[in-house]
Design goal:
Number of domains: 1
Oligomer: single chain
Low-confidence stretches: none
Order of helices and strands: HEEHH
Mean pLDDT: 78
Strand content: 5-15%
Distance between the termini: 38 Å
Radius of gyration: 18 Å
């Protein structure tokens, strides 16, 4: 299994990008499908933050939890 440094590259703007050029046996369109999924994500070196998407301010509330589920 490749390491993170083998499947990720840093672009000119400093953003991380997936590099799926590593060698292994692939099944049908697996690489194309995986690449399409991964393109939906943007990676950065900034720290993570928690946000509750069912509230405009991003803060969890019991009320919004009831409405979400």
């Amino acid at each position: 299994m490749p390491s993170n440094s083998e499947v990720m590259t840093r672009g000119s703007e400093g953003h991380l990008h997936w590099d799926l050029g590593y060698s292994r046996r692939r099944v049908s369109n697996e690489e194309v499908e995986l690449n399409q999924i991964l393109q939906q994500f943007t990676l950065s070196t900034e720290g993570d933050a928690r946000s509750w998407r069912w509230e405009k301010n991003g803060q969890f509330s019991v009320s919004s939890c009831y409405h979400a589920y």
